[in-house]
Amino acid sequence: MLKTNNHGIALIITLSIITVLIAVTFELNRQTGASLSRSGAARDRQVLQQKIESGVSLAMLILTRDKKQTEVDSVQEDWADPEKISGYLGRAGYNEDELQIEITDERARMQVNALVEFPAGRDFNPVQQQLWLRFVELFLQQQDQPDTATAQEPLEPEMIINPIKDWIDSGDDDAITGLSGAESDHYMDHDPPYKCRNGPVRHLSGLLRVRNITPELFSADDENAGLRDFLTVHGLAPAANNPHDYTYDGRININTAEIPILAALLPAGLEFLAPEMTAFRKETSGGEYLYDLTSPTWYRQVPGMEDVEIDPSLVAVKSDLFRIRCRARENQSSMAARVVVRREQNKSGRWKCRVLHWQYE
To answer: What is the CATH number of the domain that holds 202?
Structure first.
């Protein structure tokens, strides 16, 4: 009987040991799998980052090559043509499934900081103020505004523009612009509290701290465009009357601006001509563009625009500021970056691109 019991105990001990070994084996397999997965993910991230850097370098090469060929920047050039970009990527050994590049003109956007006259930085720039009133009015008309029967008041252009002006005007905490403006007293009531910037905006996301600039207005969704798609904080340049001072001229490249910006540049009531301008810029025959865009008044050739006058202080036909969007894929992972560059000459006179802002998305 005792021998039988010993055999039973030995069997139980053996089964227990086997159970523990199986559990340990499963745990080791799980940890090994997790380690391999982390290692693979880390490898993929490194490869993705290298692809992004290669894509940005290629985009900068395209932009510097373009500068050597022409002084004018327009949608007719290689950097603005998705098919030409795909060709460059193919010659570099990439296909569209693993790397995509989009180059857009930063001068096609409205300069936020130009809303205030710099370097003084206290008052509205009156020409820019009128442009902003037109743009924001048209922009809000395209948004899903709250029903007037609800408690929330529909936004008016001034309710966007005045708080932005107060945010960027310098040392002006005691002077609120209109009824809808906001200085530090307004923001100190927030949780957590913060002060008004009272200076140029450095990053577009900083506008989300401004009164009435909601995430819904700022970013695009499936139904509405976002303010961020039409604005830029870049464009600082020496002042024309004093090279030791800096300013934002607020000029927009009409060769590259999108329909909402072109509509704001046009006199009131003529915004319907903006799509005609974009079609005119890209009209081709036999694979060649039909119209020359080197003159800032080319728009007068557009049917119905012979007598139209766009304020010449608002427009340009060239740019050295560009936004590069690069997206890479590797296995099941992806990575994207938004990079703003400026074309400039070095001391030897050679053109290069200098990175002003690099953000992974």
So the answer is: 1.10.40.60
Q: What is the CATH number of the domain that holds 47?
A: 3.30.1300.30
Nearest to 172 by CA among 116, 236, 247, 132: 116
Domain around 94: 2-106+320-360
**Same domain flag for 102 and 121:** no
Residue 236's H or E segment, with its range, is: strand 236-238
Please check whether residues 96 and 145 belong to one and the same domain: no
3-state secondary structure of 241: coil
Q: 204, 147, 156, 216: which is closest to 180 by C-alpha?
A: 156
pLDDT-derived band of residue 7, with 50, 70 and 90 as boundaries? low
Q: Please, what is the average pLDDT of the chain?
A: 88
Peptide bond into 192 cis (omega under 30): yes
C-alpha to C-alpha distance for 95 and 83, rounded to whole angstroms: 12
Any idea how long the chain is? 361
In terms of DSSP bridges, do strands 315-316 and 99-105 run parallel, antiparallel, or are they unpaired?
unpaired
Residues 6+ apart with CB under 8 A from 304: 273, 276
Closest CA to 240 of 72, 118, 108, 112: 118
- Which amino acid does the sequence have at 221? D
Pair type for strands 321-330 and 315-316: unpaired
- Give, for 140, the enclosing helix (H) or strand (E): helix 126-141
For residue 4, pLDDT over 60 is answered with no
Q: How far apart are CA 47 and CA 42, in angstroms?
A: 9
For the beta carbon of residue 335, count every other beta carbon within 10 angstroms.
18
Which backbone phi and psi does 342 adopt, to 5 degrees?
Answer: -120, 130
Q: Which pTM does this prediction carry?
A: 0.84
Q: Is 256 within 8 Å of 322 (Cβ atoms)? A: no
Query: Within 13 Å, how many C-alpha atoms sit on residue 186's CB side?
Result: 19
- Phi-psi map region of 264: left, alpha, beta (phi>0 left; psi -120 to 50 alpha): alpha
Question: Which one of 256, 272, 290 terminates a domain?
Answer: 256
